[in-house]
Fold this sequence. Notes:
Order of helices and strands: HHEEHEEEE
Largest sheet: 4 strands, antiparallel
Low-confidence stretches: 4-11
Number of strands: 6
Mean pLDDT: 76
Number of helices: 3
Radius of gyration: 35 Å
Strand order of the largest sheet: 2-1-3-4
Structural class: alpha+beta
Amino acid sequence: MPEVSQQRQGGTEAPSPVNRVQQAIQAIGIFFLVQFVVGQFLGNNVSQKTSTKGKNAAVPAFTDRPAGAEVSDYSPIPQTITPIWPMNSSLDLSIYVSPSLVMPALKSVDKDSLVLEEKDFTLGDWKENRQIDTTFKVPREVQNNGTLWAHFFIALHGHPLDPSAKGYGVANAFHFFHPLNHVIPKKKVAKTRKLVGSSDIDVEEEETPEALGPT
């Protein structure tokens, strides 16, 4: 036993678990402190450059925009947003209704689906007032709980509205769509009978519609 006690006294003492935890906490604290200092230094420089550039840089007109390959410091997050068309631009508008989300070439579309066609109205002229009353046939797909879509085709006056037409350009026209109806499922009544007594209780249960995507 004396030999064992001498070896313990002569050898290095192993660190206790408490010391190990303290060392780990100190290492983590130093790491986050360094990250904070570096982030403050580099982050301020980047924000100063971005803010200075955003203030000094003039936004060109949409027609004078540079090509994507010419932008060296392109960012997917825009610093400034401006309209592509200036105020007082003359526009043409056509609205079609269809049970389909995908529109074919407008020249092949049924004329009954065209519910509105306006030409040469001024963008930003809020004093201009146009009122249109129209009717259209509801497609059979919509009668069977389908979705009715409104397709809006807008373009600068004189430019093609149809995306499939020759000469169509996204700088002069655009197309978007919006649903006009919402299918509300019917509530079904389920009758339940009590074990004690003969009275029936009607309980309304909401029917869960099937997950149908746009048509």
